[in-house]
Amino acid sequence: MTAYDAIFWFFSLALLLCGVLVLISRDAIASGLYLVLSFFFLAGLYVLLQAFFLALIQVLVYAGAIMVLFLFVVMLLDFRESRHWWHGNLLGLVGAPLAVAALAVALLPVLKRSGALAAAPEQWFEGTLENVMTPVFTRYLLPVEITALILLAATIGVVVLGRKEKQP
Amino acid sequence: MMHVGLIHYLAVSGALFALGLACIVLRRNALLVFMGLEMNLNAANLALVAFSRYGGHAEGQVLATFIIAIAAAEVAIGLAIIVALFRQRSTVVTDLLRSLKG
Known about the structure:
The complex is a heterodimer of chains A (168) and B (102).
Chain A: H1 3-24, H2 28-48, H3 52-77, H4 90-119, H5 129-137, H6 141-161
Chain B: H1 6-26, H2 30-55, H3 59-89
Helix pairs in contact in B: 1-2, 2-3
């Protein structure tokens, strides 16, 4: 077992442990903090995959901006839901494993066919800023502009949704 | 023990997606449902980055970058909706939000 393997197992097991803790935590704030931690471990996996730019974005945007927004709203709303924190009904208990099993069945052919790809990685892609952003600003310039429009629409939408209701 | 390859990253991605799916189906708090959605998006990102690394092309990481940008917009809108919902109904428990209009 090389150092690479050891680091991979550490990051992935910590990531999945944090995911389980998000699922079973009663406190929404604790769930949010575990999700932040799991994003850090995911950034570690990105570094192992030589995706340095995405690891940076993961920490800055996801853990830094998106999750701060999440935790802000969780603390703002101040709800008390200590008793029924998850679906105790039959639908949830049967439906969740069924959904996961259906997903696994759907993904099995992909996993089987990925063996050919893993066997011969003759060329490795290194996810530096230059290597990732050059196609973004050349071949995929139109999607970038569309993304900018979507972000603008989202900003306007949040302003509209966040307005105070006018008293009749 | 076999060396870490593409299949290991895909397995971790699948497990993370399953956890997110369980979070969506099982939790009653709308914010936790939303967190499960984020876990799903990150699982997809991990699979894309792994394919990009082992396939030797940039497209996976480009798509992952776009997914992160769209996720930021989606989180802003979703949290605004949840806050508006909380203002109207004083709850974010999905089981108690049954009526479409009211």
